# Entry
Amino acid sequence: MSVGFIGAGQLVHALVKGFSAAGVIATHKITASSPETGLSTATSLRKMGVNLTTSNKETVKRSDVLFLAVKPHIIPFVLDEIGPDIEERHLIVSCAAGVTISSIEKKLLQHQSAPKVMRCMTNTPVMVREGATVYATGMHADLEDGKLLEQLMSSVGYCTEVEEDLIDAVTGLSGSGPAYAFTAVDALADGGVKMGLPRRLAVRLGAHALLGAARMLLDSEQHPGQLKDNVASPGGATIHALHVMESGGFRSLLINAVEASCIRTRELQDLADQEKISAAAIKKTTLKKVLQQPGVSGTGVAVRTGISLNSPSSKHK
# Structure
C-alpha cells in the first residue's frame, strides 16, 4: 500500500512525522511534491528522508490512499488537475476544512464512476502522536476503507467516525483547538513572568499544567467541572483565580471561539463551491485551470505541494 498527499504544509509535515514515529510508513518510501523546495516544511521533509517532486499527478500515480491537504478554495482546481488520473484503486481523503464529500464526488464522477471519497478533520498534535481525528465516509467508500483510514490515523492519536454534518463543529473544537491551547499557555506564562518566574520555566510549567490536566481528564470518568472543583479549596487561591476568569468571560470566549471557527469553516466551503481563488493563491498553484477563470490573470504560477507515502500492507484495526 502507498499513501500520498496533495499539499506539503504544516499539517502534512506533522502527519508524516507522526506516521514515521508510529512506524506505519518508512520515510524513504515517502514522496512529496513542492513548488518551492526551499520552504521550511519541504526542507524538513527532505531531511527526514522524503523524496521530493514537483508533480501532483506523480503523487496520484504513486499512491493508493490520497490525502487532499490544501486550502479549501484550492480543492476544485486540484480535482480538475488530478481527476483524470484517479483510478478505482484510489481512496481519496480530504483534510480541507469545510469541503464536503459530495462536492469532491461531483468533481471526480466526471472521470470515475464510483470514486471512493472520505473526509477527515485532524490537528497538528499528530506530530507527537496525540492528534484528535474524526472522519466521515462517502457514498462509494466501504467498511474496509474506513478501517484503513482509522488504522492510519489511530497510529497518531485518537480517531473515530462521525456523521459528516458534525465535522465543521469538530474543526472549531479540536481542529483549531491546539491554537487555543498554545495561546492559553502563552498567557499563563505571561502571568508567571509578571509574578517573577523566568520565562522558560513559566512556559514549561504552564504546558505541563495543561498536559497533566488533559491526561487526568482522559483517564478519569469524572466531569471536567468536578475535577476543577477538586482543585479549588474553599477560600483558597484557586477559587479566587477562577472568579477572575469568570468575571472576564473566559467560558464565553472559548465558546465563541469554537463557534467562530465553525462558521468560518462553512464560509470556506462556500468559496470552494464558487470555485473562486485569490491572487495570492494563484502563486501557490500551477493549475492551468486557475488562469482560465474569469477575471484571473497571472504570469508566474507554482504547484501546490503533494506527498506520496509508500508503506507495506497494514493490518486493519
